[in-house]
Amino acid sequence: MPNIIILFSLKLVVFLTMFPLCANAATYNVLDFGAKPNNGTDSTKPFLQAWSLACRSVAPATMWIPRGTYLVNTIAFSGPCKSARVTVQIDGKIQAPPRNYWDIGNYGNWVLFQGIDGLTINCGILDARGSQLWDCKRSGANCPQGVTSLTFNSIKNGIVSGIVSVDSQRAHMAINGCNNMKVRKVILIAPDQSPNTDGIDIQSSTGVTIIDSSIRTGDDCIAIGPGTKNLLVQRVACGPGHGISIGSLARNPNEAGVEGITVKDVTFTGSDNGLRIKTWPKPSDGFVKNVLYENIIMNNVRNPIIIDQIYCPGTKGCSDQNSGVKITGVTYLNISGTSATPIAIRFHCSATTPCSGIKLHNVNLTYSKQPAKAFCFSTLGTSSVGQLGASLSVGQLGTSLSVGRPSPGSCF
């Protein structure tokens, strides 16, 4: 019998040498590095120490933020990391220092993750305490620009799940130069009149997915910037705010294009806009193509469907030129609900670069219990029968370009 035990032990050693068991994931608790919840102590340094060890771990590692409220100044969690996956588990609240918007407001980012392949962030509340900065901006005083609450730069294979962000100074979340990012079950909240509080800003990123989320802000729920490709937005509730916007584009003449955008199963409630594409009236090499809006519900939305190629907020920085952004292949499929204004569809495209391939299928929008109207300028497309009123409202802007078979309730 002893010989059998020895033989089995030797075989086990050989097996473990050839096929080692997976190492246990390491957990680094910010409390172990001096973080002090609920007492107003700055926890920035302990957070960075815990992150440093988690990022340097060869095995999958977790940075753990237990329950409690932690004051944190501007902070950058940087890679590359050694393991294939680093997790930040937030069971508490991360809060910006009180009355400190002057100190952090000029840094651009509050909580920044950058240069990481394989990042997961779970749960937690981020409170940027933006109200004092908003008051400063409303007063017309000289104020800092404010920070984005949560920024991702050059992240690959990232997952953000269950985050709640309240009262951002500017945007709640920014995704820049990322690849294969999934954002799910996030709640982003700022008052209706809070200035520039976008929900999620995206640019120069490929393969981003935003699902099962609620965004209630004072600006765009989602802003899709230059260089965005293969984006899916699904099962998102938007409003109040300025809707889901592609743009603004053509701010710079050599911007990358936007393509492969899908927005589906989304509800807009009380927002200024619903589905919006906006470009400055400037020369540009940019483009927008292959966009699908599907299964959308509008509840009292001021501009449910809008393409605005003369976008010029505050009439500053505008020119008398036409937008060079080429918009092609945009489909609106199964859009229903109520408009807060008589004109529910407004396509004002570039006079020199008309929109083309615009498709309206089963678009049913009403205003004051009557079919809403549509307005088109320099737009080519087709439509199926829907419940819109006048097929064209031109005003003093010129005539619409239309192709296909005209049908009631359509520009085309």
TrEMBL record:
Q: Which Gene3D superfamilies match?
A: Single-stranded right-handed beta-helix, Pectin lyase-like
Signal peptide boundaries: 1-25
Gene Ontology biological process: carbohydrate metabolic process; cell wall organization
User: What compartments host this protein?
Assistant: Secreted, Cell wall
Q: Which residues form the active site?
A: H242
Can you name one GO molecular function term for this protein? polygalacturonase activity
Asked if the record carries the keyword Cell membrane, the reply is no
Ordered alphabetically, the record's keywords are: Cell wall, Cell wall biogenesis/degradation, Glycosidase, Hydrolase, Secreted, Signal
The family database entries (InterPro entries) matched by this protein are listed as: Glyco_hydro_28 (IPR000743), PbH1 (IPR006626), Pectin_lyas_fold (IPR012334), Pectin_lyase_fold/virulence (IPR011050)
> Per the record, a Pfam family?
Glyco_hydro_28
Return the SMART domains for the record. Answer: PbH1 (SM00710)
Q: Could you say which protein family the record assigns here?
A: Belongs to the glycosyl hydrolase 28 family.
Q: What is this protein's name?
A: Polygalacturonase
Query: Which source organism?
Result: Papaver somniferum (Opium poppy)
